[in-house]
Amino acid sequence: MDRVAFIIPIHPPYFGYLYRFLESLPPNSVHVYLVFSSQGDADVFLPQTYTTSIVIPQGLQYSPISQCGIVDFKKFYALSQLRDAPHDYFIVCDAEVHLVAKNFTSENVLGKIESIFKNKNIYCGRGESGLTKPACDAFKGTAYDAAKELTEDFKLCFWWSDLPVYKREHLAHFFEVCPIPDTIYSRPDNCIYLLYLALYHGFKFVNVTPLVGVRQSLEHFATNHVEKIHTLSKSGYGHSWVTSTQYQINQTVLDEIGTFLVFHLDRHSQPDFHDNQ
């Protein structure tokens, strides 16, 4: 599956998650780029098949706390280094993920990714988000004004609503429009790229709040009502990746749909949290 690769920022406390993920990869299936904060971290990681290490530039000042921006920086730095790599798409995620091996086939994975770029939907909820305004701030001038309008004055929430996948052919222009800052601070990387797709590639926002009641993004979506899954499917949503809670509750139907990646292994989502809000 050379057309698709993973980019995963990693540091020692999460090596265990990453080892388990790499062990689950089918032979000769996909390449994984691991992004380390230092050569020392890279050196203590046990050598693995199908991986390449990327180490961010040294001498940068940053906090190791993820919320302070180091994870965002590592993702964008790796993407900037791979703009000429022999892959069409990069899935950029954290280490706390699990493969659904039966669905991790070239036909299914590429089919779902290509449908994202064909349908051009950005799934969102309408509520309050601390991520949308900082994402819009990555754009300047008229692009910022357009981003504000597209997000209904920053009220649309879309972080990790769908598989965080980047198209390699976009990367040169993307980094011209949104260069990586010289200093490291928290930026919602996936939201910035989705806004880029809306501004420059004709993507449109699809509000799922009227469909399934979620007033945030679909990042933590989990439900005891299978009809909500089918409602999202009818809107074009591919269910490429789902939370661990959602997969535990609805494994049978999600296996049939073709879900191939489960995330947030380290946390629980409250099913149907918004039903009575």
Provide the descriptors you would attach to this structure in a database record:
Spore Coat Polysaccharide Biosynthesis Protein SpsA, Chain A; globular; 11 strands; three-stranded mixed sheet; alpha/beta; 277 residues; 11 helices
SSE order, one letter for each helix or strand: EHEHEHEEHEHHEEHHEHHEHE
The gross shape turns out to be: globular
Mean pLDDT, to the nearest integer, reads 95
Structural class: alpha/beta
**Number of strand elements:** 11
Treating each run of at least 4 consecutive H or I residues as one helix, how many helices? 11
Total separate domains? 1
Uncertain stretches of 5 or more adjacent residues: none
Please name the CATH topology. Answer: Spore Coat Polysaccharide Biosynthesis Protein SpsA, Chain A
- Oligomer class: single chain
CATH C-level name: Alpha Beta
Write down the Rg: 18 Å
> Sheet bearing the most strands, described?
5 strands, mixed
Main sheet: strand order: 3-2-1-4-8
CATH-defined architecture: Alpha-Beta Complex
Helical residue percent band: 25-40%
Distance between the termini: 43 Å
Beta-strand content: 15-25%
Descriptive report:
- The protein has 277 residues and is of the alpha/beta class.
- The chain has a single domain, classed as Spore Coat Polysaccharide Biosynthesis Protein SpsA, Chain A.
- It contains 11 helices and 11 strands.
- The strands form 3 sheets. It has a 5-stranded mixed β-sheet. A 3-stranded mixed β-sheet has the order 5-11-10. Strands 7-6-9 form a 3-stranded mixed β-sheet.
- Strand 2, helix 2 and strand 3 form a beta-alpha-beta unit.
- It is globular and about 50 Å long.
- The model has no long low-confidence stretch (mean pLDDT 95).
